[in-house]
Specification:
Keywords: Signal. 5% of the residues lie in helices and 50% in strands. It is mainly β. A hairpin with a 5-residue loop joins strand 15 and strand 16 (185-189).
């Protein structure tokens, strides 16, 4: 997980922390997560609101998009500039659930109660682009829009106002899915992960676990286990999962990676969005419990 220049990193950590209240000064950095033996400190991006749906990042400008509901039950779709530390509410759209970014144009696709909307960050405008008779559950963008429908089977594509069903997936209820650098589709269905390899006609069972799915800036697919807080990455040379590390506490969900491959996630335990950045301290991950009750614990090394 690459980091930016030291001064930029410290500025982001300080300013993000300031937004949610000043943190006490400590001699040693926090170790909120441990990836590849390196500690990561977390900063609060946004808090005190109810979140729902997918997170999405415009990696060109490093802007995070998300939905939140105020204490008065008013829905907003917001953005947060991770470089310039700026927050704003998107105009003329409240509730959204699915979100995906075209990284080449920076346009953001969002599903509302029905239909799909497109946000243009250059003009700060939102417009409907179709599917107004459908309730979209999840969105991904990889040269075109991929989506699943709420309480319906399958994954579909939407391009030039035409809908096309991916026939190999028509019998699956899809709870989450991503498209990796090889254009393989990984998806969660009935508490199991399946994979539809690019160019094949049948989806195959991949692993019997519930994971949140995410791809990083390189298109590598990651598997995040909310219960144990463990993060895995696919080793493409071996076609198997490799443990990257773990998050120290909470229940991570809706994970995305920013322009520098730093992780951002929604913690469903305390309803906060967190931003993880390396602080160069060494760490280890230990395991407690057995079977489905395994928990991962992060601790700093003394060397």
């Amino acid at each position: 997980m690459a980091d930016r220049k030291f001064k930029t990193k410290m500025k982001i950590i300080f300013l993000l922390s300031t937004l949610s209240g000043a943190l006490p000064v400590r001699r040693r950095p926090h170790c909120h997560a441990c990836f590849n033996g390196m500690c990561h400190s977390r900063s609060t991006v946004f808090t005190a609101h109810k979140f729902s749906g997918q997170l999405a990042v415009d990696r060109t400008a490093n802007i995070l998009y998300f939905h939140y509901q105020t204490n008065r039950s008013i829905d907003h779709t917001g953005s947060f500039d991770l470089n310039d530390i700026k927050f704003k509410v998107l105009p003329k759209i409240g509730f959204t659930f699915g979100r995906a970014v075209d990284q080449s144009t920076r346009e953001v696709f969002m599903s509302g109660t029905v239909g799909i909307h497109k946000y243009n960050p250059k003009t700060n405008t939102v417009k409907s682009i179709g599917l107004t008779d459908k309730t979209i559950w999840h969105l991904q963008y990889k040269d075109k829009i991929y989506y699943s429908e709420f309480k319906s089977k399958g994954i579909f594509t939407y391009e030039k106002n035409k809908i096309k069903s991916i026939k190999a997936l028509s019998n699956f209820h899809v709870d989450d899915f991503v498209i990796d650098k090889q254009n393989d589709i990984y998806f969660l269905s009935d508490s199991m992960i399946y994979r539809l390899k690019n160019g094949t006609k049948t989806a195959d069972f991949f692993i019997d676990e519930i994971f949140s799915l995410a791809t990083d800036k390189k298109g590598d697919v990651h598997f995040i286990q909310p219960g144990s807080r463990t993060v895995y990455i696919l080793d493409y040379s071996k076609d198997s999962l490799t443990e990257l590390g773990a998050i120290g506490k909470g229940t991570p969900f809706s994970v995305v990676f920013d322009a520098d491959n730093n992780m951002i996630y929604h913690d469903v335990d305390d309803e906060k969005l967190y931003y993880l950045m390396p602080n160069y301290s060494l760490c280890t991950v230990t395991t407690r419990g057995k079977g489905k009750n395994v928990k991962k614990f992060v601790s700093m090394r003394n060397e």
